[in-house]
Amino acid sequence: MRLLSLALVLAATASAAMVKTDSTCVVTPLSNTPARSIGTVAPADRDVDPEAEPDLWADLGPFADPPPGALGALGYYPRPEPSRGSRPLPPPVEIGVQGNRNHHVPKDGALEARQTNTDDTPQMLDAFKQCGKDGTIIFKEGTYNIRQVMNTTDLRNCSIEIHGTFVWSADNIQYWLSKSFSVTYAGRSTAWLFGGRDVSMRGFGKALFNGNGQVWIDQNRNNANQNGRPISLTVWRGTNIFIDGITWRQAQFWHTFVAHSQNVTMTNLDMNTTSNSQWKAVNTDGTDTWNSKDVVIANWTVKCSDDCISVKGNSTNIYVNNVTCYSSGGMCVGSMGSNTGQPDYVDNVVFENVRLFDSSNAAWVKTYPGTGHVKNITFRNIHFDNVNQPIYVTSCIYSYPNCDSSRLGITDVRWENITGTSRYNVAVGIHCSSQAPCDKLQFSGIDIKPLKGGTSKILCSNIRNQASSGLQCTGPCPGSHPQQLSGNV
Ligand SMILES: *[C@@H]1O[C@H](CO)[C@@H](O)[C@H](O)[C@H]1NC(C)=O
Ligand SMILES: *[C@@H]1O[C@H](CO)[C@@H](O)[C@H](O)[C@H]1NC(C)=O
Ligand SMILES: *[C@@H]1O[C@H](CO)[C@@H](O)[C@H](O)[C@H]1NC(C)=O
Ligand SMILES: *[C@@H]1O[C@H](CO)[C@@H](O)[C@H](O)[C@H]1NC(C)=O
Ligand SMILES: *[C@@H]1O[C@H](CO)[C@@H](O)[C@H](O)[C@H]1NC(C)=O
Ligand SMILES: *[C@@H]1O[C@H](CO)[C@@H](O)[C@H](O)[C@H]1NC(C)=O
Ligand SMILES: *[C@@H]1O[C@H](CO)[C@@H](O)[C@H](O)[C@H]1NC(C)=O
Ligand SMILES: *[C@@H]1O[C@H](CO)[C@@H](O)[C@H](O)[C@H]1NC(C)=O
Ligand SMILES: *[C@@H]1O[C@H](CO)[C@@H](O)[C@H](O)[C@H]1NC(C)=O
């Protein structure tokens, strides 16, 4: 019994602000945690749910700093990164000795330093470890500082509730560049691998994920995909995953990625990564799906600087509904087929009720000259303003000389009720491979007008069913036709 108590004390010391009751873990940000050593609290007093007993925490004065010279819990911060080894813990301090009971939040440097250097990752991972199976994890209000990668892919029947703000550190860029987890796809990596079975993560419109993206944007200096620049959240090997009501601001890289997963529903998400410097927020996609099946994306607002919703290789049954995108690439299948030795398949995708503002493209399919297929895709009820080249299909994205060698077939694609304004005089640009012409393309209700007036061009090449497609092509589309135009053609 004594040994058990000691173990409990040690476990509690390692994650001072996380409290477990039955199968529920309640996490409070360390920066909000009373400055005290939990080791001096009787175990009976420790096992309380602060949600049920708010007064317990209030009494301790959540932001109270210890008096000068005293070693409070403050002595535990900053927590070392794993590579730097651990510091010895300072001696415990009696509760009450250090505390003033003032709830006022001091805006002094000490508090700020504590908030930025605190690392909540250990206690967050501890909550996932202790309550990630048949449990509930509640992140209470406040700011959680995440200074380390998180791998929570072994969750089972777990409900996660986030009421606070997660901030990913950016004063340790080298740490992230070297430690972010690989997600295999195109050499990309992520700060958080999230997966398992029967898992929900709800933010109630209150959860805020802040990736400190401006720092990432500024150090990346307009370069394309930077190795190690981490995707904010990756659903990895997840089955029956529900993610709802989370707001992202200034993501590090792509906001989300769904890979090797099945039955993933992501609803009511709000993302905005906007650069306020001379450097552009490149590659800040809203989401990408890859090697995944049965994915629902609904009620999203995304302001980003690349694909808004992108369906990549080996994605099946993807349903996208009610999404508004600003300054993005719009609704996109691809890119895919970059490896000719490895086929990529995309089947059964619906994008509907989508609004786009100031995008590069609206409803497009981009493949490398590879193998596999794109089949059974619907773009429906899509309205936009000021889109560079709204409908675009290429069989050779960024590899123009090989355009007609692609054997990746694009068939059974519908564009229905696609309306809005194009930035220049091209509404549609389609170049299919002559080796594998597009087939069964269907167009109806296409009404795209150039922003500055005049009539739109509809350029097409190698559409097998062109005569019955419903598209009145006005001229050919060469293999070298670019994704983005810089003026009228
Ligand atoms: C899921 O976990 C909860 C506890 O959070 C438990 O009550 C329930 O029985 C579990 N469901 C299954 C199917 O195991
Ligand atoms: C993530 O955690 C799972 C389960 O614990 C483990 O199998 C896997 O190897 C880990 N992945 C990485 C990249 O560390
Ligand atoms: C798919 O996931 C949802 C949770 O988002 C769950 O309610 C549903 O039962 C799952 N469907 C299947 C077929 O397991
Ligand atoms: C995104 O954030 C920027 C910068 O804060 C702001 O100017 C813009 O209005 C926001 N856009 C949306 C769609 O929320
Ligand atoms: C989309 O948002 C509306 C309005 O808030 C809500 O009624 C609807 O249930 C949401 N749909 C989903 C799939 O969450
Ligand atoms: C669409 O999603 C937005 C949030 O992005 C929501 O406010 C709106 O109510 C939704 N519309 C419908 C019809 O669900
Ligand atoms: C896509 O799926 C096919 C067929 O299962 C497989 O051969 C191929 O390796 C997969 N592609 C990728 C990039 O995983
Ligand atoms: C095409 O995709 C839609 C939507 O995902 C699906 O309902 C339909 O069954 C698919 N058609 C075929 C022939 O697979
Ligand atoms: C066409 O799409 C718009 C939204 O862009 C929608 O309001 C309208 O009802 C749709 N028309 C038809 C006939 O479905």
TrEMBL record:
GO terms for cellular component: extracellular region. One of its GO terms (molecular function) is polygalacturonase activity. Keywords: Cell wall biogenesis/degradation, Glycoprotein, Glycosidase, Hydrolase, Repeat, Secreted, Signal. Its main location: secreted. The keyword Secreted applies. InterPro entries: Glyco_hydro_28, PbH1, Pectin_lyas_fold, Pectin_lyase_fold/virulence. The keyword Oxidoreductase does not apply. Residues 1-16 form the signal peptide. GO terms for biological process: cell wall organization; pectin catabolic process. Belongs to the glycosyl hydrolase 28 family. This is Polygalacturonase-like protein.
